[in-house]
């Protein structure tokens, strides 16, 4: 089968969109399908038999740009990709979202030309805009966008969501339309157990990485870091890796025992995570956080380190139910700090949790999850 896979940031390999897109392309090619990737003007390479890359004229706009610039940039790239779609051989189109505007344009064009399209939904729009305060849920503009989006969803050949809660939300919203689940996961050749937890002459490392944007709980982090400074009796460090305006705000505060390394390649991020002792994920309780499962938590699982997650979302409940870590409601800073203190000071507990994770981690690799995705597409 000929499949067009629309992943606007495909070649970089530095974010969840690109990493998931590449894993899907590899799996579909492994199954014998002929894949055409429609993406932005990224730099990089992807040499897999059966996969052809068709680059657009523009790059996917950075999420650090002002919203209006991102919207214009996405629209330009979306029109460019939709035009290219008309001239490639395809039986089906797979479109990932976000980027939201590109998904709308490509899905709309696919619908007009009767091309069966599959939506890979990683986040919910226009709900994200409402939670960010960009538009009111009660406004006519929001309702118009929501009506149009529901039409795009209902016309899809299939819908795949990255969490059960996103799938349930969409099924309720679309009133009877089935939504399948194919989770994210860790990349197994990057995130694997490397830390033996045997006491060594170095501080215990607590790590947090990714996007320190609107969803990151900066205020709770500051309080937790301050509590740990007062409570912990042995050497430790908190390492922050990533990007976002809240990370720059933390840099200016010069918090004790907190080291901010900024943005780096996925390979370097993985090395730091593998050598860490504890992983944390702190988000504000917006709707997308409460229905979400941060990719960083999968990467902690892949690396065999215990996780501490807020709020009590799908990812948080998962690590607790599986015995992979701990989860707390947003704002329980004292309890979160106490839990992290316990993990810092008790190497035997960290080792016990790590051994349990290593025995049970395999099914949660991204390579295994995209097998589920491929099966859903063709069942």
What this model shows, in words?
With 379 residues, the chain is of the alpha/beta class. It folds into 2 domains: 2-186 and 365-378, Rossmann fold (3-Layer(aba) Sandwich), CATH 3.40.50; 204-360, Glycogen Phosphorylase B (Rossmann fold), CATH 3.40.50.2000. The protein contains 15 helices and 13 strands. The strands form 2 sheets. The protein has a 7-stranded parallel β-sheet with strand order 3-2-1-4-5-6-7, sandwiched between helices. A 6-stranded parallel β-sheet has the order 10-9-8-11-12-13, sandwiched between helices. Strand 9 (236-243), helix 8 and strand 10 (258-262) form a beta-alpha-beta unit. Helix 7 (218-231) crosses helix 13. The longest helix has 19 residues, at 67-85. The radius of gyration is 21 Å and the shape is globular. The two termini are 14 Å apart.
Structural class based on helices, strands and sheet pairing: alpha/beta
Summed up, the helix count is 15
Major sheet: order of its strands? 3-2-1-4-5-6-7
CATH architectural name of the largest domain: 3-Layer(aba) Sandwich
- The amount of helix comes to 40-55%
Number of domains: 2
Q: Report the CATH C-level class of the largest domain.
A: Alpha Beta
Q: By CATH's scheme, which homologous superfamily of the largest domain applies?
A: Glycogen Phosphorylase B
- Mean of residue pLDDT values: 91
Q: At the third CATH level, what is the topology name of the largest domain?
A: Rossmann fold
| N→C terminal distance | 14 Å
Largest sheet: 7 strands, parallel
What's the layout of helices and strands?
Blueprint: E1 2-6, H1 16-30, E2 34-39, E3 51-55, H2 67-85, E4 92-97, H3 100-112, E5 117-121, H4 127-131, H5 140-155, E6 158-161, H6 164-174, E7 180-181, E8 204-211, H7 218-231, E9 236-243, H8 245-253, E10 258-262, H9 266-274, E11 278-282, H10 287-290, H11 295-303, E12 307-310, H12 314-322, E13 325-327, H13 333-345, H14 347-360, H15 366-378
Parallel strand pairs: 1-2, 1-4, 2-3, 4-5, 5-6, 6-7, 8-9, 8-11, 9-10, 11-12, 12-13
């Amino acid at each position: 089968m000929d499949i067009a896979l629309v992943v606007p940031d495909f070649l970089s390999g530095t974010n969840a969109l690109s990493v998931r897109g590449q894993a899907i392309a590899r799996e579909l090619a492994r199954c014998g399908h002929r894949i055409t990737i429609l993406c932005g003007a990224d730099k990089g390479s992807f040499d897999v038999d059966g996969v052809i890359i068709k680059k657009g004229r523009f790059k996917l706009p950075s999420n650090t740009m002002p919203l209006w610039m991102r919207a214009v940039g996405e629209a330009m790239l979306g029109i460019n990709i939709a035009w290219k779609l008309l001239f490639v051989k395809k039986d089906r189109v797979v479109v990932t979202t976000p980027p939201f505007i590109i998904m709308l344009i490509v899905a709309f064009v696919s619908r007009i030309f009767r091309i069966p399209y599959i939506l890979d939904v990683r986040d919910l729009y226009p709900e994200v805009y409402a939670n960010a305060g960009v538009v009111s849920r009660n406004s006519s503009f929001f309702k118009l966008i929501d009506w149009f989006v529901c039409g795009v969803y209902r016309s899809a050949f299939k819908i795949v969501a990255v969490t059960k809660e996103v799938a349930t939300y969409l099924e309720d919203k679309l009133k009877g339309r089935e939504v399948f689940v194919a989770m994210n996961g860790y990349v197994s050749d990057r995130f694997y157990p490397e830390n033996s937890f045997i006491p060594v002459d170095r501080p215990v490392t607590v790590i947090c990485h990714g996007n320190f944007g609107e969803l990151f709980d900066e205020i709770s982090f500051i309080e937790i870091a301050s509590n740990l400074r007062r409570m912990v009796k042995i050497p430790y460090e908190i390492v922050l890796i990533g990007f976002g305006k809240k990370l720059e705000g933390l840099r200016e505060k010069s918090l004790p025992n907190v080291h901010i390394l900024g943005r780096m390649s996925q390979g370097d991020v993985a090395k730091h995570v593998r050598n860490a002792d504890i992983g944390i994920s702190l988000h504000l309780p917006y709707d997308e956080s409460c229905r979400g499962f941060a990719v960083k938590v999968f990467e902690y699982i892949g690396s065999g380190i215990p996780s501490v997650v807020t709020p009590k979302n799908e990812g948080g409940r998962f690590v607790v139910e599986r015995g992979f870590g701990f989860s707390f409601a947003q704002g329980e800073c004292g309890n979160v700090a106490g839990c992290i203190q316990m993990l810092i000071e008790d190497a035997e507990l960290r080792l016990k949790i790590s051994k349990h994770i290593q025995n049970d981690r395999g099914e949660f690799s991204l390579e295994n999850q995209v097998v589920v995705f491929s099966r859903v597409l063709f069942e």
